[in-house]
Specification:
Distance between the termini: 102 Å
Largest sheet: 6 strands, mixed, barrel
Radius of gyration: 37 Å
Structural class: alpha/beta
Oligomer: single chain
CATH topology of the domain at 62-157: Barwin-like endoglucanases
CATH architecture of the domain at 62-157: Beta Barrel
Helix content: 10-25%
Order of helices and strands: HEEEEEHE
CATH class of the domain at 62-157: Mainly Beta
Strand order of the largest sheet: 1-5-2-4-3-6
Length: 165
């Protein structure tokens, strides 16, 4: 009973003393600031030896060799009625708006805009299409001959879903 009386009598004094002691200790012995935790990201890379595709959706065109081909024997060696006549490498029908590319440089299925031709989709390959070379499809041999072989500006488009022109 005497202990409870003593605690009640001195408890407020003890609390005030504890607060004063902690303030004095913090003033004379300040705690060191703790460093902020760092977040470190470790990225492991692996060297892959694959041909890098050209940059898609570029704002600047890439200058490439551009030629034209037809479904006929002048371009493909196939005649009407032969197996595979008029069919592209990807299995679609060859038509205006389709082009042949080297798939190690331009992925099949890519949409392109070719200066002097318009929009086309890379659906075919060709034995003589190598590197940065685009071979656009035309219906007539005379048009393909007139189109010629020259360097033209080519844009590789990303997300173009329209029908090639």
């Amino acid at each position: 009973m005497k202990a409870l009386k003593w605690i009640n009598q001195y408890s407020l004094d003890l609390i005030i003393a504890a607060i004063l002691i902690s303030l004095v200790v913090n003033v004379f012995y300040p705690s060191k600031p703790q460093p902020k935790p760092e977040i470190r990201t470790i990225v492991e890379t692996e060297i892959i030896t694959k041909t890098a595709y050209v940059k898609v959706n570029q704002t600047e065109p890439i200058e490439m060799v551009v030629t034209a081909y037809t479904a006929g024997p002048e371009s493909t060696g196939k005649r009407p009625g032969m197996k595979g006549y008029g069919i592209t490498y990807t299995g679609t029908r060859a038509k205006v708006g389709v082009c042949a590319v080297d798939p190690e440089y331009i992925p099949l299925g890519s949409s392109l805009f070719v200066e002097g031709y318009g929009y086309c989709r890379a659906e075919d390959t060709g034995g003589k299409v190598d590197g940065y070379h685009v071979d656009v499809f035309l219906d007539k041999v005379s048009d393909a001959m007139k189109f010629g072989r020259e360097k033209r500006k080519v844009w590789i488009l990303k997300g173009y879903e329209g029908e090639p022109t």
